[in-house]
Write a structure and sequence with these properties.
This protein is α/β, with parallel strands linked by helices. Helix content is 35%, strand content 20%. It is elongated and about 80 Å long. The protein binds ligand BES, manganese (II) ion and zinc ion (ZN). Zinc ion binds next to β11.
């Protein structure tokens, strides 16, 4: 893996290293306490470069004499809109991309020092920016190459100079856990399907026990005993057996009802007998992105010792093609007893989730269930790569998710559920069918299908087909897999479901 920066926190009067980063405000202004030589050099450079302190704009200078650093990087923070949590991730990501070596970041704007949480988020953004999936490159990235020429392959050291170092360190402990969860989700999604089958994936999840998460793995026989024939039908065309993994983080009193997260973990989606076209099919190694977000979230909650009881359940299968594969027209009975006509074997995610959702509410009686899935291509047509689709039977949960999306930057957009759409999945030979028929409302009919298996528990479905992978790179994500969902759901839990 790429080398992540080393993060440290110090007081504002910390002597700079090779690079000093200064935050600028409106009009290119800088904090008052800076030495005059520095203020003059910055003012001159700002004039020449037409730098106005705009958020994320930057000017890079040779440090003037009298400043104990080689370089001075001035980064803007000013914008009309107040800064969100995500803006600090972007700031940190921007700095990590521009500054190498021993870097000191003065976390102060002309308006005053940054809050501990803001500095911690900058540090988190810097880590996420440095993430790179280069496991299978015999020669590591170009960046490493250049560094080797200089005989120096050390990762950057970022020292955040803040008003309250202890507070920032405490805030970073939580941020670091969220970043680790996000990077774990990215790793899992980036991993190809030949390496990460259902069994290998379950083994990787088992490693989370080191973080205090209880992990239970169900195999094929156990799922058959539970009558999970919707999930098993998807898996039957693959020589690689399925797994259902149950993760438990107990951070609150035993009596407290848990919150639950459920993920689609199709390690590869060929489409099955309703096979997909060849072009772009390689992206279907990421069809376990929903499950990866659940795994990453559990890692984050455990890492920051969140005071909540949380369940994570992932259904891990491969949707493959061979003589044993499920056929269009097959009828399966889900664990709930609902019979399903499988009219298109490529609408497999909902079949996996049907049993995982039913099992989750039946066994754990959660306060709510949120499921994540790379469920439909149609959600990309509707929302592109910038919002995940949100469907819910509960307005309060939906509103809380939308609010968490706005602050975290992992945005969601609600689409409707309604009787009329539910009618579209009524079966001809069985209770329901696994496609709506035709092109109309493909993401909604998929959500209606899932709703049949939630049994009136407050529930939300996030269709992350457009956001889990392949979204444009950003200040804090340069990887194909984004880890979308970890930060969003961590914020949901932190804001509403933790005990004091
Ligand atoms: N995994 C796909 C959805 C998908 C598409 C995810 C593109 C990421 C990028 C899902 O299993 C699927 O194939 N859905 C079908 C449903 C259709 C057969 C009703 C689709 O979207 O075409
Ligand atoms: Mn499919
Ligand atoms: Zn799929």
């Amino acid at each position: 893996m790429a080398k992540l920066p080393k993060i440290a926190f110090a007081s504002l009067d910390q002597a700079p290293g090779d690079v000093l980063v200064v935050l600028s405000g409106e009009g290119g202004s800088v904090p008052e306490g800076l030495p005059d030589a520095m203020r003059e050099a910055i003012a001159k450079a700002a004039r020449i470069a037409k730098f106005k302190g705009k958020r994320l704009a930057a000017v890079d200078l040779i440090a003037p004499s009298g400043v104990a650093a080689d370089r001075l990087l001035v980064v803007g923070t000013h914008a009309k809109e107040p800064a969100t949590e995500e803006d600090f991730l972007k700031l940190g990501g921007t700095i990590a991309a521009k500054a190498k070596g021993a870097v000191t970041i003065r976390c102060e704007t002309p308006e005053g020092p940054l809050a501990p949480a803001e500095a911690a988020r900058m540090a988190s953004g810097a880590m996420l920016r440095a993430y790179e999936f280069d496991l299978y490159k015999s020669k590591k990235s170009k960046k490493d190459d250049e560094e080797e020429k200089e005989g120096d392959d050390e990762p950057a050291t970022l020292t955040f100079a803040v008003a309250d170092p202890d507070g920032a360190r405490a805030a970073f402990a939580a941020e670091e856990a969220i970043a680790a969860g996000t990077m774990l989700a990215r790793d899992l999604v980036n991993e190809p399907a030949n390496i990460l089958g259902p069994v290998e994936y379950a083994d990787r999840i088992k490693e989370l026990e080191a973080h205090g998460i209880a992990v239970e793995i169900l195999g094929e026989d156990e799922m058959r005993a539970l009558k999970m024939h919707a999930l098993l039908g998807v898996s039957q065309g693959s020589p690689r057996p399925p797994r259902l993994v149950i993760m438990r983080w107990n951070g609150a009193a035993e009596s407290e009802q848990p919150v639950a997260f459920v993920g689609k973990g199709v390690v590869f989606d060929t489409g099955g007998i309703s096979i997909k076209p060849a072009g772009g099919m390689e992206d279907m190694k990421g069809d376990m992105g929903g499950s990866a977000a659940v795994v990453g979230l559990m890692r984050a909650l455990a890492g920051r010792k969140a005071k909540v009881n949380a369940i994570g359940i992932v259904g891990l299968v491969e949707n493959a093609v061979d003589g044993a594969a499920q056929r269009p027209g097959d009828i399966v009975t889900a664990m709930s007893g609902t019979t399903i006509e499988v009219l298109n074997t490529d609408a497999e995610g909902r079949l996996v989730l049907a049993d995982a959702l039913w099992y989750c509410q039946d066994r754990f009686k959660p306060r709510f269930m949120v499921n994540l899935a790379t469920l439909t291509g149609a959600i990309i047509v509707a929302l592109g790569n910038h919002h995940a689709g949100l469907f819910s039977n509960n307005d309060e949960l939906a509103e809380r998710l939308a609010a968490a999306g706005k602050v975290s930057g992992e945005k969601v957009w609600r689409l409707p559920l309604a009787r009329e759409y539910d009618k579209m999945i009524e079966g001809k030979f069985a209770d329901i069918k696994n496609i709506g028929g035709g092109r109309a409302a493909g993401s909604i009919t998929a959500a209606q299908f899932l709703q049949r298996f939630v049994n009136d528990v407050p529930w939300a479905h996030l269709d992350i087909a457009g956001t889990a992978m392949g979204s444009p790179s950003s200040e804090y994500n340069q990887s194909w897999a984004s880890g979308f969902g970890v930060r969003l759901l961590d914020r949901l839990v932190a804001d509403h479901y933790q005990s004091a």
